[in-house]
Design a protein that fits this description.
- This protein is mainly alpha-helical.
- The chain is 66% helix and 9% strand.
- The strands form 2 sheets. A two-stranded antiparallel ribbon has the order 1-2.
- A hairpin with a 2-residue loop joins β3 and β4.
- The longest helix has 40 residues.
- It is elongated.
Length: 305
C-alpha cells in the first residue's frame, strides 16, 4: 500500500513539474504561441485555394518568432494579431485582405530568418580563415566587423521600422478605404428597394456578388457576362428582390409572407363578393347548367321569354 501511495505521489510530482515546464516554455515563447494561434485563426477562415500558402507562411512566422532575436518575436506577434483583427473588421473583401496580410507576414518572417542565418554565418567564420583569403588577420577582423555592422544597420531599419510600418499602413489603408456606410449587401439592397437601378464599378469580386448581373471588362471590352443567382433560401421560397412582403401577427408570432400588389382598376375582381360569384359560375360550368347561343339576338330572345 505504501508503495502505491509513493508511486501516486511521484506521478503527481512528475505531472506537476511537466505542467510547470510547459507553462514556463509557453511564457518564455509567448510571442511564438500568439503567432501560432493567430495563424490558425487565419487558416480556419481562409478559402480552400489559400490554405496551403497560409499554412506555409504560418510555419515561417512561427519559426521566426521562436528562434529570432528581439524585436522579431514581438513584432511578428503584433503583425499576426493585428491581421486577424483587420480581417474580422473588414466588411467588403476579407479574403483579399487576408491574402495581403499573409504576404506581409511572409516578408517579415523571411527577413527575420535571413538575418538570423546571416548572423550565424558570420559567427561561424573565423578571422584566421578570412586572413588567408585577404592577406592579414587585422584586415580580416576589420572586414568582418564592417560587414556585420552593415548588416546590423540594415536589419535594424528593416526589422524595427520599414517592414512593420509598411505592413500596418497597409492594414490601416485597407480598413479605411471604404466609408463606414454598412456592408455592401445592405447598401445595395437599400437603394434598389427604392426602385433605383444601381450601376456599380468595383475590383472586388465579393462585392460584385451582391448584384444581379456582373459584366467583366478588360481593356475597355466586355469579355464575360453572368447573372448572379439569388440566395438558396430565397429561391426555395420563390422570393426575388423587389417583391412586396406582408407582415402580420398571429398568436404572438410575426409572420412575413409574399404579397401581391393589385392594380386599383382591377381591385373589384378580387373582392369577396366577386370571387364568390366566380366560384358559383365555375360550378355551373362544371355541372353543365349552361346554355350556348349562336348570336346575341338568340341570347336576348331567351332572356325575354
Amino acid at each position: 500500500m505504501d508503495g502505491i501511495l509513493h508511486l501516486i505521489r511521484d506521478l503527481a510530482v512528475y505531472e506537476s513539474n511537466g505542467a510547470l515546464a510547459i507553462l514556463y516554455t509557453m511564457w518564455e515563447h509567448a510571442a511564438a504561441v500568439l503567432v501560432l494561434a493567430g495563424t490558425l485563426h487565419l487558416l480556419h477562415g481562409s478559402p480552400e485555394e489559400q490554405r496551403t500558402w497560409v499554412a506555409g507562411v504560418g510555419v515561417l512566422a512561427f519559426l521566426a518568432a521562436l528562434f529570432s532575436e528581439i524585436p522579431v518575436p514581438a513584432v511578428m506577434a503584433a503583425m499576426v494579431l493585428a491581421g486577424v483583427g483587420a480581417v474580422r473588421l473588414d466588411r467588403f473583401n476579407p479574403d483579399n485582405l487576408r491574402w495581403r496580410i499573409v504576404g506581409g507576414v511572409a516578408l517579415y518572417a523571411l527577413a527575420g530568418l535571413g538575418y538570423l542565418a546571416y548572423s550565424a554565418y558570420l559567427d561561424s567564420v573565423s578571422a584566421e580563415a578570412w586572413a588567408q583569403a585577404i592577406g592579414g588577420q587585422g584586415e580580416a577582423m576589420t572586414t568582418l566587423a564592417q560587414g556585420q555592422a552593415f548588416v546590423n544597420t540594415l536589419a535594424t531599419w528593416g526589422l524595427w521600422l520599414i517592414v512593420p510600418l509598411g505592413y500596418f499602413s497597409l492594414l490601416a489603408q485597407s480598413l479605411l478605404v471604404h466609408p463606414p456606410s454598412g456592408v455592401p449587401r445592405d447598401v445595395i439592397a437599400a437603394v434598389r428597394t427604392r426602385g433605383i437601378t444601381v450601376v456599380l464599378v468595383t475590383h472586388e469580386p465579393a462585392v460584385a456578388r451582391h448584384t444581379q448581373r456582373i459584366i467583366h471588362l478588360k481593356d475597355g471590352l466586355v469579355i464575360e457576362e453572368e447573372t448572379v443567382e439569388p440566395p438558396l433560401e430565397a429561391r426555395e421560397l420563390g422570393i426575388e428582390e423587389g417583391d412586396y412582403m406582408e407582415v402580420s401577427l398571429k398568436e404572438g408570432v410575426i409572420v412575413i409572407s409574399p404579397a401581391q400588389v393589385v392594380d386599383r382598376s382591377q381591385a373589384y375582381f378580387w373582392s369577396k363578393r366577386w370571387q364568390q360569384e366566380e366560384r358559383e359560375a365555375d360550378e355551373d360550368i362544371k355541372t353543365g347548367r349552361v346554355r350556348a347561343f349562336e348570336d346575341a339576338d338568340s341570347l336576348t330572345a331567351d332572356l325575354d321569354s
